[in-house]
Amino acid sequence: MTTADELLLIALVPYRRRVRIRDADRLRFALRAAELADLGRAGRIVVGPRRIEVTDPRPVDERRLNNVLRGLASAHPPPGLGEWLRRTPRSLTVEYLSRLEDRKTVRVRRWREAGGRTRHDIVLVDRSRRREVLDRLAAVVRSGPDGSPGERDLTLAALVQAAGLASAVHPGVRGTLGRRRLAALAAGGHLAPGAGGAGPAADEELAAALVAGADGLTRQLQDELGDLYADFTTGGHGLGHSADPGNWSDGTGHHGGGGHGGW
Predict the structure, then answer these.
(1) CA 81/CA 70 separation, integer angstroms
(2) pLDDT, tens only, 78-102
(3) Could you give the C-alpha distances from 181 to 17, 163, 216, 224, in angstroms and in order?
(4) Which of 57, 92, 178, 192 is deepest in the core (most CB within 10 A)?
């Protein structure tokens, strides 16, 4: 799975006889950020102060990420980070939901409302696979920045915190300490996929991005997501105004009977 696949899996919270998408309004932007994180870790892009630079257009071993890479490479002029995230398609969460369905990690029931809009009810999530991701993330939180977790797990932890999914990882009163540790880890400046293998800088902007070191890209993604979420909620405007709440059910109008452990 990509980082975005795992981020969505974390956000799919089984609750009694329903499966909810936690913080759905924020999630699509975090999924878009996760794609950039994976491409950065693969050495295909760096994010400078003004634009996202494709430094290696060779394909990666994942079709979805290749499509993103081609989109970035063909954009003229190259987009900035904020512009790219704000242009996140409303369908992105549903696209990733379909990816998990193809992997038999979720089961989805689709139905049409009277007005013709298609809804997606999540009737089952593979709890064992979700638990594997949660356990990896919990290990990162326990070890802290001085431990030896992989860069991908550190990036996932940062995006979970940025997207407001900490309570999906550490729920309830018992999860208070875990949520505090996750927040401290994400704020500590130790989280990033880096820009290894990106090649020589073509100009000062690219050089500045490379000099930022291993913490650079994930820190930029965290900061930009924070600004984006703040922009959408300033002045009483909720994120729901920019999302498409009709595409799937988050449990409030759920008709499926799944959510019980395993398949």
Answers:
(1) 16
(2) 999 999 999 999 899 999 999 999 9
(3) 30, 16, 21, 22
(4) 192
Per DSSP, the residues of 87-108 read T--TTHHHHHHHHHHHTTSEEE
- Give the residue, 185 or 33, on which the prediction is more confident: 33
108 burial type by CB count under 10 A (0-12 exposed, 13-18 middle, 19+ buried): buried
Structure tokens at 224: 């930009």
Q: Report how far residue 136's alpha carbon sits from residue 215's, in angstroms, rounded to the nearest whole number.
A: 20
Number of Cα atoms under 13 Å in the Cβ half of residue 120 = 19
Cα–Cα distances in angstroms (integers) from residue 1 to residues 62, 162, 165, in the given order: 9, 20, 19
Closest CA to 152 of 70, 40, 65, 58: 40
Please identify which residue in the block is written with the tokens 């242009």. 87
What is the chain's length?
263
